[in-house]
Amino acid sequence: MSQHYKLDRVREMADGDEDFVAALAAAFLEEVPEDAERLRTAVPAKDYKEVYQAAHKMKPTIDLFELGVLDTLIEVQDWGKFEQTDKNVDEQLIVVLTAVDNAVNEIKSDFGL
């Protein structure tokens, strides 16, 4: 259970309310894959604004569930924010998307969602 994410901060925030933990897990599944898909299409299209907005929106949840890719996600976000045309973030994108995919699959399994 939970190799690709951690529930320490989630449980601390939930203060022992496992229903709240499950609700946060469901919210993760509802929001994060959608934003990851936005990144998946916006980075190759060099849609800097969309990249920035999607990455920025994902940050708190990625941090809360401790996927271990927050710094990499920030690199992608900053690429969009500062329109770093001289930089390539394809590798960083793959790292973030892989972490999200792994966490999504694991959370679905762990919470029966």
Brief sketch in words of this structure:
With 113 residues, the protein is mainly α. It is built from five helices and no strands.
Backbone shape? elongated
Count of helices? 5
Question: Judging by the overall fold, what is the CATH architecture?
Answer: Up-down Bundle
Radius of gyration: 14 Å
Task: State the major sheet.
Answer: none
Helicity level, as a percent range?
over 70%
Strand content: under 5%
Overall number of strands: 0
Q: Give the CATH class.
A: Mainly Alpha
Measured distance between first and last alpha carbons = 14 Å
H-E string: HHHHH
User: Which stretches are poorly predicted, pLDDT < 50 over at least 5 residues?
Assistant: none
Overall domain count: 1
Mean pLDDT: 96
CATH topology-level name: Four Helix Bundle (Hemerythrin (Met), subunit A)
Give a written overview of the molecule.
The protein has 5 helices and no strands. The chain is an all-alpha fold. The chain has one domain: Four Helix Bundle (Hemerythrin (Met), subunit A) (Up-down Bundle). Helix 2 (18-42) runs antiparallel to helix 5 (90-111) and helix 3 runs antiparallel to helix 4. The chain is elongated and about 45 Å long.
What's the topology here?
Blueprint: H1 8-14, H2 18-42, H3 48-64, H4 70-81, H5 90-111
Helix pairs in contact: 2-3, 2-5, 3-4, 4-5
Provide tags for this entry.
113 residues, mainly alpha, Four Helix Bundle (Hemerythrin (Met), subunit A), elongated, Sig_transdc_His_kin_Hpt_dom
